[in-house]
Write a structure and sequence with these properties.
There is one protein chain. The chain is an alpha/beta fold. It has 29 helices and 11 strands. It has helices at 11-14, 21-26, 40-65, 67-71, 73-89, 98-112, 116-123, 125-129, 146-183, 188-211, 216-231, 235-253, 297-302, 304-313, 338-345, 358-367, 385-390, 425-433, 453-466, 494-499, 504-510, 542-559, 568-595, 599-623, 629-644, 654-682, 686-703, 707-710, 714-741; strands at residues 261-264, 269-276, 279-284, 287-292, 328-332, 350-355, 378-382, 396-401, 435-445, 471-475, 484-490. The strands form 2 sheets. It has a 7-stranded mixed β-sheet with strand order 7-6-5-8-9-11-10, with helices on both faces. Helix 6 runs parallel beside helix 12 and helix 11 (216-231) runs antiparallel to helix 12. The longest helix has 38 residues, at 146-183. The two termini are 30 Å apart. Mean pLDDT is 84; it is low at 3-37, 133-144, 406-418 and 736-742.
Amino acid sequence: MVARSSTAASPEQASLPRSSSLGQLLGDFFAPPARLSRHPLWLLWAVSFAALYVEVLMIRWIGTEIRVFAYFQNLALIACFLGFGLGCFWSERRKNLFYSLAAMSVLVAGVQLPLATWHEFLRMLSSVLSLSPDAALWGIGKNPAGWTYALELTAAVIAVACFLLLLVIVMVPLGQWVGFYLDHASRVVTAYSVNLLGSLAGIWVFAGMAFLWLPPRVWFAGAFAVLLWIERPRLKTALASAALLALGLWLLGFKMIPSVRTLWSPYQKLDVRSWGHRQYTIYVNNTGYMTIANMTPALLARNPNINAIYRKISSYDAPFRFASHMGRVLIVGAGAGNDAAAALRNGARHVDAVEIDPVIYHLGLTLHPEHPYRSPRVRVILTDARAFLRRPHRPYDVIVFGLLDSHTEFSDFSNMRIDNYVYTRQAFREAQRQLAPGGILVVKFEVRYPWEWMGQRFYAMLDRLFGRPPVVFFAPTVGELVSATVFIESNSPALWERAARPPLAHLIASHPPGFPLTLQGAPPPATDNWPYVYNRGHFVPRTYLTVSLILLALAALLTRGVLEPKNPSTWHFFFLGAGFLLLETQMVSRLALYFGATWIVNCVALSAILSVLLVANLFVERSQPRRLMPYYLLLIATLIGNYLFPWESLPYSARTVGLLLSAAYAAPIFFAGVVFTEMFRRSAHKATAFGSNIVGAVAGGLAENLSFVFGMKLLLVVAAVFYLSAALCGRRLANFIGSASS
């Protein structure tokens, strides 16, 4: 399993001179803290808290500022694990948390450098690294030809490698200190439990900051305060840290456009720019998200051309022309209220507006000139759209899937964007079941060149689901109402009868979608098992391959001379780490289907994992199992059982199935915890064991790419293979220990 911990040496060893290049560069800022032996468990809790807090901070912040880290959220996670693992291996060297502070400051300076060209370069990293536009991540497509592109690719590789290296450096000292306290604890299992409790606290403190919409300046100030409190620096170090913090806070607060208002939700960074009378544009993670449309009578009176056509052809109003009834309307991904305002303009008597981000809802509530969220006919539900669709409701006359391409809503522990679960075949089937007789389903999506195949994917998915091809047309931009390709389906043939009569027939004929309306050549459908709607087929996108190669090269360079490949313990803990990371990400991702991919669900899921591990620790401490092979067999059996069991076929509510699934995943987590804790308790070289465990987690993170080819559920089988390998290494390790002792 993956542990947020490592080991270190004795106080005498901790005071040895550094031999690393980092030490030579930064110098000796700290003497070994004199209070190491006074309150070891309390200090272990504090450092464990700091490690998880800083890890989550890095993942959350760098993903909002550099798009390549947002698209591949586990990239930052793997880099942090690599740094923590190296800290385990280097725990006998002198430890200095100033390295973490300095690396964080350099990261902030490198990301927030106030140069427009630099920020444009960072924005384009993902498309440059793709080598060709096969990932369809809404970057600008480039043809990889010529020296110019070669230079861009080289610069992109160097930039990503530098950012990854800085993330590694941030975590190394934290790994050293956590391991130091674990290694010198009189009761190892108790100390490991304290480590887990500190990690749990770190998760929830950061979650509380996200809940309060606090900005990164507060996050980083908190990190600096905790790290400096742990080591109690000398005056020179304290002054240097204060200078770094002041520089970082200034850069984090610097605005290249002073008029932009920045808010931080539990999910993303939101910039609001005012560009006219009651007219606003919202940017999400430095990327355009939506314009709050002003369709008030006063504005329309000043724009007669818009007034004459917006109801006829806009992507917000035109779909309602195909509805036979406007009693109940559901909007999935309601955003700041444009779709809700359009529903009210077209006579909806009741509107359920589902939006996951409370800050986006707040912006719509306070800034939208038509005030749709203040209407008594509108009910706003702040939750995950997929979770809402799974619940039983009164049937809807119109269900609208808004423009959900937010670019930013990601699961912190998976390779996928969480809006993908909204665009799967199962999600559309759930929406189909919610339609009233004669009701229509409206799916709006921005299909761009050269990714027209995405439009064909939606066309084929809806055709096969409803048994008839959807009505499709392109709705152009009208004033502030953005363009979109509109797909309309229904369980009733009355939709196609209306679409065949003028003026709707003229709208469809005069605004073709720009891609072939045929099933032939359509990409495979997105499903809950393969939710990669932005990937054309079952292959790993080139950007992922490029970034994975960068990370592999960095890991090979940093672990050179550190791992002990001839030692069975190395591979044993390596496979335990790889298997547990896949198990952890699978649980979080699968539970998102039943409880929603909200920040609170992720925090609860991770807390549940740590709680099960604590129970496993208690079990090991009391029983001290001598034979671990039965636990290995139970672990592998429960993983395969979860893979084979048809959870989606259970005739229960989504919440009930989610609870049953949680219990089913708790079993392998418990067995994995028992195996790891007992083997860790027996290990003679705990620093090596923990280091191998964390490096194994890096391998597990990279193995997640297999889901692009085989689907998400197969990762459970891959985890079972890792654990089987660990069991075989465990038997070899037992023989190795036996022969050594004899």
